[in-house]
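Q: Entry one of two.
A:
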Amino acid sequence: MKQLLNLLFPKHCVVCKKEGSFLCDDCLSLIEINPFRYCLCEKLKKEDKCNNCKNRYLDKIFSASDYNNKIVKTAIHKFKYSYIKELSLPFSFLILKHLENVNCSIDTSFILVPVPLSQKKIRKRGFNQSEEIAKNISKVTGLLLDSNCLIKIKENKSQAELNKTERINNIKNVFKVTKELKNKNILLIDDVYTTGSTMEECSKELKKAGANKVWGITIAREMVDL
């Protein structure tokens, strides 16, 4: 059946339109995988947190690529808004390769937690893109995936439409932790890190529930004018 579907509805690269897969090997090879891990803020210091970020709830951020790369931006847009779930596979590869590049050591004390979507968005899209990536990483690493401990309880505007100040206000009090997480270490998975407002709000709720460490992991990182 799968072969018949592929014959009737062949896959084409979302970037160059080459037949065979949704992100072809040629386009994937043109995505530079980030060899460094930077501070949470826009300064891109090669450290966990600069003095301006030391009081943030999020402890570290790992972003596999640059959102300014046209291939990355196009593929992420298709993943989210054209509902191409299979793009989670190359994105997961980029993330795992980035973690290898920066010698990130993750032990079994960490739990994978995707940034949640509202039920309305899940019904429309059919899946949570962050959860699909988390599933792939779980399969490769053996880390536990918990998609239910963090939920979204309020519908809000899309963060992409807003500036930094608006994003911070827009994301307040929209997430809830459903269980105690005392001394748990969390790998928080999302697609793009821009101002960090979403991950910071999630991290706040996770730490209120007892989480010890919260590290963010994304496909890409976007630089913004603040």
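Q: Entry two of two.
A:
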Amino acid sequence: MGGDIVTTDLALQLFAEMLFTALLITAPILIPVMIVGLAISVLQVVTQVQEMTLTFVPKIVAVFIAIVVFGPWMLRKLLAFCAAAIVQAGSL
């Protein structure tokens, strides 16, 4: 009975760490894309130009730049999480 509680606690801890890691990994891409999207929306409202490619292309460029800049850091975070998850899974 006591072992089940420890296993559940470790699983919950791993799940919380997974969510936090997912937030850290996605934030460097989501934040620039949201800022670019907001800037393009303001530009469209001011100029009343409703062109779909005007919103799509700058967001793709922002994602590409964010991946180039933050990609190595994101990969290190993901690998550290995976290594910790494998170690914790071995202790269950």
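A: Comment on entry two: The longest helix spans residues 2-47. Residues 2-91 form one domain.
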